[in-house]
Structure formats: C-alpha cells, structure tokens
Write a structure and sequence with these properties.
The protein is mainly α. It has one domain (about 1-15, about 25-225). About 60% of the residues lie in helices and about 5% in strands. It has helices spanning about 1-10, 50-55, 55-70, 75-90, 90-110, 125-145, 150-165, 170-175, 185-205, 210-220, 220-225, and strands at about 30, 35, 40-45. The chain has a three-stranded antiparallel β-sheet with strand order 1-2-3. Strand 1 (about 30) and strand 2 form a beta hairpin. Helix 4 (about 75-90) packs parallel to helix 6. The longest helix is centred in the middle third of the chain and has 24 residues, at about 125-145.
C-alpha cells in the first residue's frame, strides 16, 4: 500500500487541455450528494452552507471572508463548493486558487486515508473519498478552461497553493469518523505531494506554448475568451 501511495504522488495533477463541456462556460453545473447541488444551489457542508448558497452578494462575500479567516481548518469539500460558487459569481481567479487548494486537500485526504478502514456506502470515509474525485471531475473543466487562458497567472496560483500546504493540518479534527494512517507518516506523504505539485507547476510552464496551441485548436480558447474575473475583496 505504501508503494502504491507514493507511486500516485506523481500523477495527481492533471493538465486540462481538452475542450470543456458545451454549455455555459461561466457556470458550473454539479451535483455531488449530499454536499452540493447547483440547481438551487443547495449546499450541505456545515456552518458555511447558507452563506455559500446565498444569492445576496454581500452575504456571500462575507461568508467567503470568514472562511478565509478559518482557512487551515477548511475541508476539501468546503473548498470545492467555495470554488464553484466563486466561479459562478464571477470571482474566477479567486475560484482557481480555491479549486487547486481543494484539489490539494482532497488528494492529501485520499493519500493519508487508511484504505483498510474506508467502509462502504454511507460511511464518512467512503463518501468523502468518492466526493473528492466527483468535485474535481465536475468543476475542473470549467475552472481549468478559464484558468489555462492565462498560464502565468495559473502557475503563480499553483506555487501559492504549494507554499500554503507545507504542513499537514489536523486531519482527524477536520474529518471526524475517518481513519487515517499513523500521524508519523503524514509529513512524508505530504512532502511527496507538495513536491509533485511543484513539478506540476514547472510542467505547466514548460508546456505553455503547447497548451495555448491545443486550446486554440480544440475551441477552448474561443469558448472562454469572453470570460473575465471580478477582483475578490482582499483576494485575487
């Protein structure tokens, strides 16, 4: 299991060069039970749920700012939902940062999870383990479709995410009822994950010209060319 875990470290970050889905590029349609349903939106991620779902701009911004104050304690589910809502409301650079922070935390969760104690449907570990892939697959095409339009800005965000995750927070506190590998292994696993993100950022920089060509060829550049990002107060 340990060999498999470390083998995965180099493959957790994915380039999104394929054209994104054909619907509205400025909105993410996603349903990840029981956490998020874009049709409401309906949010079920704990104390920030009502604020994240709010259609009142001031209430939403205030919720995001409170979450940023509690940043290190946020789960990857809260970060993914925050990323989706930020994107839908036009704060797309901030959404990109939240999305890659969520991806980091989600991969960290999966790598440090005790696979022997994941349980079955209905168990916290099982639901969260599959939710992290679902959120990535549903939110990734739109957020990356926008983000890869400015590779330099994206790489800067990737480095920021990497820098902010040098240490491992209290996983047991963030995910009650979930069994993880012994804490003595956390630092080593995270160091490998962190290193792989730096390597991913370097590969994105190296492939900048190729990314731009492929986006132009498959229509992604044209599709997302009209999208802009509103500056988030005190953020990106």
């Amino acid at each position: 299991m340990r060999t498999l875990r470390y083998a995965l470290l180099g493959a957790v970050w994915l380039l999104a060069l394929a054209a994104a889905a054909s619907d509205d590029p400025g909105r993410i349609d996603a349903y990840v039970t029981p956490y998020y349903d874009s049709s409401g939106p309906v949010v079920n991620v704990g104390k920030y749920s009502s604020g994240l779902a709010s259609t009142n701009p001031a209430a939403f911004v205030a919720t995001i700012r409170r979450m940023k104050q509690d940043w290190n304690a946020l789960t990857f589910v809260e970060l993914y939902v925050g990323a989706i809502r930020l994107y839908d409301l036009g704060y797309r650079n901030e959404a990109t940062y939240w999305f890659y922070s969520a991806q980091y935390k989600g991969r960290q969760f999966g790598l440090m999870l005790d696979q022997k104690k994941i349980g079955g449907m209905g168990s916290p570990a099982f639901e969260l383990y599959h939710a992290q892939d679902a959120f990535f697959e549903l939110a990734g095409p739109k957020i990356n479709g926008f983000a890869y339009g400015n590779v330099d800005a994206l790489v800067s965000i990737l480095h920021r995410v990497q820098s902010g995750n040098r240490d491992v927070e209290n996983l047991r506190g963030a995910y009650p009822g979930v069994a993880f590998v012994p804490p003595s292994e956390w630092a080593g696993i995270n160091a490998g994950l962190n290193k792989s993100m730096g390597e991913f950022a370097a590969s994105v920089t190296k492939q900048k010209s190729q990314i731009e060509k492929e986006r132009a060829a498959n229509g992604t550049a044209a599709k997302f060319s009209s999208l802009r990002s509103r500056p988030f107060p005190g953020g990106l």
